[in-house]
Structures are given as structure tokens and as C-alpha cells.
Design a protein that fits this description.
Blueprint lengths: L7 E3 L13 H12 L5 E4 L11 H15 L4 E5 L5 H14 L3 E4 L9 H13 L5 E5 L1 H4 L5 H7 L5 E6 L5 H9 L5 E4 L5 H6 L4 E4 L6 H12 L3 H18 L6 H11 L22 H15 L3
Parallel strand pairs: 1-8, 2-3, 3-4, 4-5, 5-6, 6-7, 7-8
The structure holds 2-(acetylamino)-2-deoxy-D-mannose and pyruvic acid (PYR).
Family: Belongs to the DapA family.
Organism: Psychrobacillus psychrotolerans
Pfam family, one: DHDPS
Length: 303
Amino acid sequence: MLNKFKGIIPAFYACYDDAGEISQERIIKLSQYLYGKGIKGLYVGGSSGECIYQSLAERKATLKYVAESLQGKLTLIAHVGAPSTKESVELAKYAEELGYDALSAIPPIYFQLPESAIEKYWLEIMNSTELPFIIYNIPQTTGYNLSVSLLKRLLKNDKLIGVKNSSMPVMDIERFKAAAHEEFIVFNGPDEQYVSGRLIGADGGIGGTYGVMPELFLKAEEFIATGNFSNAREIQHDINDIIIALCSLNGSMYSVIKEILKIRGINIGSVRGPLEALHGEDLGKAEGIKRMIDEAIEKYQMA
Ligand SMILES: CC(=O)N[C@H](C=O)[C@@H](O)[C@H](O)[C@H](O)CO
Ligand SMILES: CC(=O)C(=O)O
């Protein structure tokens, strides 16, 4: 039953028109483009979706357009974490109406709340719909790292089916798997560690750079699935060179990714402030990174 969650699940990027408003047309274009690459599903409205910088109405619109474009074709996960519990629950109910396959949420943001408040927040989201729930653990941005004891308490609720784990120690993946039941899914978060994450027990991955190079992550997954570990290690190395390049320019990683997609004919606008658009002497450098991606795709085509 949970097989539909196991595989390569790109985090969907925020899609804006040239004025910086949500673009239905561009959402459809990006979702169809990614669908055509053979991915398993999409994670909509997370970090890559710039969720924290969008209004409730904008987030709902994005959830709706992706669902309309891909319903029944891909596994769709809605990230519904928002500043207040009230808004998170509203998004959760809306995602259920739209037919999403699962919900997910970061812990509360801004205030460093005690674990009891985080527990209550996730439980209220879980109890607001019939949908399965996936915890989004990303301590480097939220300041909270999921504890095994909270995970165990939350597992008493059958709706909790997994964790998307973006903490850097791959060991956390192994600990979360060990703390849960056999069916429990752990998604690898850090794209730089996809191969290691899978080997230590992750069932698949949800990642922010998959969307700009889905071919490479699908190939890495194929190498792992067929036990071809030397190629898996090598493609991870090539992926990491690319991610480091994506993060090396003046402008947010997402703005560089969006420039590359634009060169490919998928124009989804730029990023919303306070994220920085690509600027200064680095304008035009996305082309070189796109070339790195193309070369890597070609390198493994026959492997
Ligand atoms: C901190 C962060 O945003 N992590 C993402 C989600 O897990 C990753 O997918 C990164 O986007 C990726 O690993 C590039 O650093
Ligand atoms: C990276 C990721 O999973 C996200 O953008 O939410």
C-alpha cells in the first residue's frame, strides 16, 4: 500500500509569472515536464515551493493547479506547514478535498516552542483529515530536530506513515527506521546523500534539486536498486559537484535552478523576496551549470 511513496519525489518549485504572481499556466507546464521524466510523485508547497513566503490563497491555488494537472498520474504530497495551526489545518482540509495522497508539515516556525507544542501541532493536523501524514524534519532551518521519543509517541496515531528527514546525519534515517514499524517510510532529505541515505534504510527521497536533474536521481536509484554500487557512488559524486555549483552563485539556489529550467524552455519565473534572484556578475552563469547536468546525463545514459 505504501509503495506509491517509494521512489524519486521532486519538491515542486514555486511558479510565478513575470510580475511575481502565482501562474497556473507555468504550474501546469512544470508539473507535466516533471511527470514526463518518470518520477514517482511530487511534494508540493515545501521549502522549494517557498511556502513560508506565500499567502494561504496562493498556496491553495498551487495545490489545486498541480492536482488538476496530475491527479491519478502521480503520488501527490501536500506540505501544509504554516505559521499557525489554524492555517495549517485549513490547508490540510483543502488538500484532502483536492484528493492529495498525503499531508506533510514542518514543526512550528519562529518561536522556539517546547516539544509538547510541536507534538500538539502535528497531532492537530493529523486529526483534521483522513489523510496519511509525513513529518518534515529539517533542523537546519526550523531549529528543531525530531526526537525518537516524540516519534514513538506520534506513532500511536495510525495516520503517521513516515518522516521526510533532511537532517545531515544519515544515521538519523537508520534511528527513525529502527524506532518505527516495518511499513514506516523514511524519505532521504539531503540530495547530497541520496545514495548513503538509501543504503542505510531510506525508502526513497524527496529533494529540492531533483526537479532540475531528475534524470540523475532516477539513474542513481536504478543503480542502487540493481546493486551497482560503484556507479551509484560515482553518480552521487557528480550530483554533488552540481549541487555545490548551484549553491555557489549570487542568488538563492532556487533562483539558479529556475534559470536552468528557463534555458530548457520551462519558464517558472524567479524567486520571491527575501530569497535573492541571480544577480550581478553571476547572471549568465547558469548556462555552465546546465552544461554540467547535461554532461552527467549523457555520461550515464548507457550505464
Ligand atoms: C536544507 C534543505 O533545503 N534541504 C532540502 C530538503 O531536504 C534538500 O533537498 C536540499 O535542497 C538539497 O539537498 C540541496 O542542498
Ligand atoms: C527539499 C524539499 O523537500 C522541499 O523543498 O520541501
